[in-house]
Automatic annotation (TrEMBL), chain A:
<dbReference type="GO" id="GO:0016491">
    <property type="term" value="F:oxidoreductase activity"/>
</dbReference>
<dbReference type="InterPro" id="IPR029061">
    <property type="entry name" value="THDP-binding"/>
</dbReference>
<dbReference type="InterPro" id="IPR005475">
    <property type="entry name" value="Transketolase-like_Pyr-bd"/>
</dbReference>
<feature type="domain" description="Transketolase-like pyrimidine-binding">
    <location>
        <begin position="4"/>
        <end position="179"/>
    </location>
</feature>
<dbReference type="Pfam" id="PF02779">
    <property type="entry name" value="Transket_pyr"/>
</dbReference>
<keyword id="KW-0786">Thiamine pyrophosphate</keyword>
<dbReference type="Pfam" id="PF02780">
    <property type="entry name" value="Transketolase_C"/>
</dbReference>
<protein>
    <submittedName>
        <fullName>Alpha-ketoacid dehydrogenase subunit beta</fullName>
    </submittedName>
</protein>
<dbReference type="InterPro" id="IPR009014">
    <property type="entry name" value="Transketo_C/PFOR_II"/>
</dbReference>
From TrEMBL, chain B:
<keyword id="KW-0560">Oxidoreductase</keyword>
<dbReference type="InterPro" id="IPR017596">
    <property type="entry name" value="PdhA/BkdA"/>
</dbReference>
<feature type="region of interest" description="Disordered">
    <location>
        <begin position="1"/>
        <end position="55"/>
    </location>
</feature>
<dbReference type="Pfam" id="PF00676">
    <property type="entry name" value="E1_dh"/>
</dbReference>
<dbReference type="GO" id="GO:0016624">
    <property type="term" value="F:oxidoreductase activity, acting on the aldehyde or oxo group of donors, disulfide as acceptor"/>
</dbReference>
<dbReference type="InterPro" id="IPR050771">
    <property type="entry name" value="Alpha-ketoacid_DH_E1_comp"/>
</dbReference>
<dbReference type="GO" id="GO:0000287">
    <property type="term" value="F:magnesium ion binding"/>
</dbReference>
<dbReference type="GO" id="GO:0009083">
    <property type="term" value="P:branched-chain amino acid catabolic process"/>
</dbReference>
<feature type="domain" description="Dehydrogenase E1 component">
    <location>
        <begin position="65"/>
        <end position="352"/>
    </location>
</feature>
């Protein structure tokens, strides 16, 4: 085991993929000599040459559309979108071609590729640099959507994404890039489609993914003082989604809070909450609650802490899980048409 | 000085592309000729031979004629099938036969084509089964042919998005040591979309062997070209990306084939992309569902009837002694047989399988899709039991 940052693990995953598979090409904006604005591609061009790792014109639709053509020719593109909100110009290419080509052609054409997106907030970034855009991708059939929360997962999931026969949107939580963890490379963790219990507990299940996982773990630690023993499940791959591990956990604990950094309305957290209550209704002692970002455009840096799910907000929400079997006072005053 | 179209035209007076660009003007070698290249008069009379665009071999022109006649018959049949309710919709390319067939003839079989919804005629000209081409419009699946085997991308409806795919494919092929050329079709209106510009630019920066072939048929549904651009013509869009460009009379089959042959050779020789604009006209409405009388008048359409590309080539080939009444009749017979076969095969009701909905979303269905598949299976079983 060694201590390293998630950024280092991602860099190692790209390097190992370039080394082991000649078809892999890494490209995007500033990924060459500079090594990317987050240095995730640091040193790759020097090591593998500018045919394997290269800068492109500044045009995100162009980058993703170019990758479609490269994949059609048999190569394995791994592209970097510089920031979450700057992937939006590529959305038409992603939604209309990347996600659909296999289906449109009855499997005759497929376009395996990885679209890496540094995403979400918590780094004091100015506007357009902190969006949680996972719902757009998870809502698009044909894409796999992955977001690591640990250093080992960063390496393993990225390697698996590059090897996957389908296109993968790989969402890298920016605020975890330079957080360190223990990892032994080349790490191989649970495959796509498997959620992982990060902390065992008996009283309630916190379901989280990506940047929300460390917050959930922190909240679970703090909850001990309040007398709650909380389980934390890391979803890891939003598509394909692991209903089983999450439902098993909630059936054991009888209570569930879903935590996502994204704005909550019509989001992935809402989907998870709905799936849990469909599957666990008879095991539930309380409605499934959600803690999410507020339903606002991502706020200015000095205000983001109010927006982001916090330990306190999570614990306040856990407190509303019907421990005394009384109506939740919040719904007595809110959410009524009257 | 303002850059009116006239002013730009005057700034580029040459009629022949020099072998090397003039040292003084780095754009000179990239600009199209000021008038569309033309080798036949509209009535089919040959114009004086020119050494920048040598006339294609007569056998190639004869084959072009044959395919144009068959292609036009296919197009008419598809329109008829739409009226009978066999197709949901059909965008005709009647009037654009020289472009549709010329592009295909300029390519090798192992080159790639990136077509739009307008290119059904080009695809059947490429030898793709017309029933497979019409699968999309009949509605039993999206792309009916095998794009990898036919080296032909699915017909693209999101405008201009195919331009970037062509750049990537062509670069990927050359990266792997193959001399494949990609030809991307695009309409005049779609040149306003960002992906056209991103595609041409990527191809130029990566020196990808792509021919961008703009069929300027003057309208994007109802919107005329003047609403798309203030450029002297669409071929002038290449120079900004460092891409050599040409404009051609798109209803002159001989010129279309000559210009595209040169463009393909340029790309294949490793000089990067090439942009060709063909001036043509769509004789039919945008699709059968469109009412073209709302935005263009009959006189305009009639004027284009006089420039019919099929008649033009026929006149020329007859004058050259490459075509006679017997040959014309024989080719017409081939076209009729082709249409009859298509009609008959399109009359058979296609079988669709609801269970196939889950097959090609991912390489392996997700657990959620497996659940939904079982649900649909149960629904179908229950319905079948109800029927029994
Ligand atoms: C991105 C996008 N916007 C709008 C449309 C709807 N649409 C389909 S065809 C068309 C006109 C395109 O005109 P042009 O590029 O000149 O091609 P033509 O149809 O004349 O061959 C439009 C607006 C579309 N398919 N894609
Ligand atoms: Mg048009």
């Amino acid at each position: 085991m060694a201590t390293m940052t998630m950024a280092k693990a991602l860099n190692a995953a790209l390097a190992d993929a370039l080394l082991e598979d000649d078809r892999v090409l890494v490209f995007g904006e500033d990924v060459g000599q500079l090594g990317g604005v987050f240095r995730i591609t640091d040193g790759l061009q020097a090591r593998f040459g500018d045919k394997r790792c290269f800068d492109t014109p500044l045009a995100e639709a162009g980058i993703v559309g170019f990758a479609v053509g490269l994949a059609m020719s048999g190569l394995r593109p791994v592209v970097e979108m510089q920031f979450d909100a700057f992937a939006y110009p590529a959305f038409e290419q992603i939604a209309s071609h990347v996600a659909k080509l296999r289906n449109r052609t009855r499997g005759k054409l497929s376009v395996p590729m990885v679209i890496r997106v540094p995403y979400a907030g918590g780094i004091g970034g100015v506007e357009h640099h902190c969006d949680s855009s996972e719902a757009y991708y998870a809502h698009t059939p044909g894409l796999k959507v992955v977001t690591p929360a640990t250093v080992s997962d960063a390496y393993s999931l990225l390697r698996e994404a590059i090897d996957d026969p389908d296109p993968v949107v790989f969402l890298e939580p920016k605020k975890l890039y330079f957080a360190s963890g223990e990892a032994q490379l080349p790490a191989r963790t649970e495959p796509f489609g498997r959620a992982v219990v990060r902390r065992a507990g008996t009283d309630a299940t916190l379901v989280a993914y990506g940047p929300a996982v460390p917050v959930a773990l922190e909240a679970a630690e703090a909850a001990r003082e309040e007398g709650w023993d909380l389980e934390v499940v890391d979803v890891r791959t939003l598509v394909p989604f692991d209903d089983g591990t999450i439902a098993d956990s909630v059936r054991r604990t009888g209570r569930c809070v879903v935590i996502s950094e994204a704005q909550g309305f019509a989001g992935v957290g809402a989907e998870i909450a709905a799936r849990v209550q469909e599957r666990c209704f008879h095991a539930l002692h309380a409605p499934v609650l959600r803690v999410s970002g507020l339903d606002i455009p991502y706020p200015a840096p000095m205000l983001e802490h109010t927006h982001l799910p916090s330990v306190d907000r999570i614990l306040d929400t856990v407190a509303r899980l019907q421990w005394d079997d009384q109506p939740d006072p919040r719904w007595l005053t809110q959410g009524s048409a009257a | 000085m303002t850059t009116t179209p006239q002013a730009v035209r005057r700034a580029s007076p040459r009629t022949r592309r020099p072998a090397t660009p003039a040292a003084t003007d780095p754009a000179a070698g990239l600009l199209p000729q000021t008038e569309p290249v033309r080798l036949l008069d509209p009535d089919g009379t040959p114009l004086p031979a020119r050494d920048d665009y040598p006339e294609p071999p007569i056998e190639a022109l004869r084959e072009m004629y044959r395919r144009m006649v068959v292609g036009r018959r296919f197009d008419t049949q598809a329109t008829a099938l739409t009226k009978q309710g066999r197709l949901a919709v059909y965008p005709s390319s009647r009037g654009q036969e020289a472009c549709q067939v010329g592009a295909v003839l300029a390519l090798r079989d192992d080159d790639w084509v990136f077509p739009t919804y307008r290119e059904s005629m080009a695809l059947v000209s490429r030898g793709i089964d017309p029933v497979e081409v019409l699968t999309l419009l009949r509605g039993d699946w999206h792309c009916g042919y095998d794009p990898a085997a036919r080296r032909t991308a699915p017909q693209c409806t999101p405008l201009a998005t195919q331009c970037v795919h062509a750049a990537g494919l062509a670069y990927g092929e050359s990266y792997q040591g193959r001399d494949t050329v990609a030809l991307a079709f695009i309409g005049d209106g779609a040149t306003s979309e960002g992906d056209f510009h991103e595609g041409v630019n990527f191809a130029a920066v990566f020196k990808a062997p792509v021919v961008y072939f703009v069929q300027n048929n003057k309208y994007a549904i109802s919107v005329p070209l003047s609403r798309q651009t203030a450029a002297p013509s669409l071929a002038y869009k290449g120079v900004g990306y460092g891409v050599p460009s040409e404009q051609v009379d798109g209803n002159d089959p001989v010129a279309v084939l000559a210009v595209l042959t040169r463009a393909v050779a340029h790309a294949r020789a490793g000089h990067g992309p090439y942009l060709v604009e063909a001036h043509t006209y769509r004789m039919e409405p945008h699709t059968n569902a469109d009412d073209a009388t709302r935005y263009r008048d009959a006189d305009e359409v009639e004027a284009w009837r006089d420039r019919d590309p099929v008649a033009r080539l026929e006149t020329y080939l007859r004058a050259r002694g490459a075509l006679d009444d017997a040959a014309v009749a024989e080719i017409a017979g081939q076209a009729e047989a082709y249409a009859a076969d298509l009609r008959e095969r399109m009359n058979a009701q296609p079988t669709v399988d609801p269970m196939s909905l889950f097959d090609h979303v991912y390489a392996e269905p997700t657990p959620q899709l497996v659940e939904q598949r079982e649900q649909v299976r149960a629904e179908l079983a229950a319905a079948a039991e109800g029927d029994a």
